[in-house]
Structures are given as C-alpha cells and as structure tokens.
Specification:
The protein is mainly beta. It has one domain: Immunoglobulin-like (Sandwich). It contains two helices and twelve strands, in the order ααββββββββββββ. Strands 4, 5, 6, 7, 10, 11 and 12 form a seven-stranded antiparallel beta sheet that branches. It has a five-stranded antiparallel beta sheet with strand order 1-2-3-9-8, with no helix packed on it. The chain is globular and about 65 Å long. Bound molecules: calcium ion. Calcium ion binds next to loops.
Amino acid sequence: MKKIFLTIIAAVAMVSMVSSCNKPDDPNKDPKDEPKDEPKEAVVIDGAFADWAALKDVAVAEIGETSAYPGLLTLKATADESNIYVYFEYELQEEGEDGALQTSAPFEIFVNSDGNPATGGASWLWSEIGYEYMLECETGFLGENNTVRDMDDMNIYLFDGVDGVDAWGEGGHLTQQEVTSFCESAGAIKNGIATVEVSFLRSVVNANKAGSCTLGIVAYNGGWGTTGVLPQGAAAGEVALMEVALP
Ligand SMILES: [Ca+2]
C-alpha cells in the first residue's frame, strides 16, 4: 500500500513538472506576428507569372493574325478587393532605318473605371472607351541590359474634359493626379519579348464599387510612334476596351 502511494506521489510530481514547462504563452512571440485575416492578393507582382496562369477569373485579349500595331501580343487583367492587375507581353519592335530594336517603350493604360462608355474621354484607339483615368509610363518599361525596370515613376491622369471628346481634341483635358505609391511593377525579357505585370490601387482610379470596368493598353517606341494596341481588331479603333470584373 505504501509503495502504491509513493508511486502516485511520483506520478503527480511528474505531471506538475510537465505542466509547469508547458506555458500557455511564449513570451518571445510578438502578437503582431500573428497571421491576420487580410485577403490574399490575386497576383503577386514579382516578375514570376505562374499565378496568372492559375487565375480562374481573368480577362484576356490577344493580337489577331493581321494587325496594324503588332507589338502587343497578349493583354490580361484581373482584380481583387484592393487592386487591378494588368499583364502584357510585348515583342520589341525595330526602330529607325538600321533595324535596331527600340530602346525605349513608353505605354499607357486607359481605364473606363465606371464601366460606362458614355462618360469620359474618347480615343482613336478603340471604338468604345469613355475612360476616366489614364496611367502613363513615360520612361517606359525597358531597363538597362535587357531588363524590365521598376516603374515607380508612373503617372496617373484624370480625364476631366467634355464627355466623348479626345483628350487632345477641342474640349478635351487631362489633369495629372497627385498620388504616389499607387502601383507596383515587375517583368522580364526573353528572346525579344517582354513580359510585364503591373498593379494599381482601385481607389486611385475611383473603381471602388463591385461590378466591372473596362481597360486597354497602348505601347509606343522611343519616338512615341504607336507600336502596340490591345484589345485590337485588324486596325486600331475597331473594337471596344476589355471588360474586367471587379469583386
Ligand atoms: Ca466612363
């Protein structure tokens, strides 16, 4: 009986030792490190493109067999609660008489952020547009040594002219917006084809409501000659902008 009693005491002592080591909270753990319930971004802007291939809800426009502006090959776009994401593939074009490839590639993204083609600016590039905002990368996506540069100098313009008028026509007007840190970009160039991904905040183009917007992209060479347009038919101006669902 005494032996059994001692065994029980030993067992109780062991259990209490174990429980004293098993502290409920780790004092070295910062509560700020706990994962939060923030929604996961639809696309990570890192110059790797597997996440685009895996997207379920993505809008796509591709170049046709005949095109007056063949530089842009593919345009994709998607959105999550915070951002609109744009992906494009661009084949570098010859520039000048010596046949050398372009060394500068500016581009613009036109966003009809209310989805209504009757409001906002017009353009010769698409049949229905009504864009509220234009994002412009004046320096372009080409970096040194055949790379895609970080486009932290992208500008954003509000069309605040007369509805249905071209920005450079009578009654047209663009106002540069005083916003910074609204976009991210990354990309890579392989065999003369640049693949680029850009994201920008929905709030800066006033596309906060669920529904859809439409957008299109135009690319240029160093002399601002138009080299690529998507969406595009056989010629620019034949098709409407591409619709992107906004969750
Ligand atoms: Ca509009």
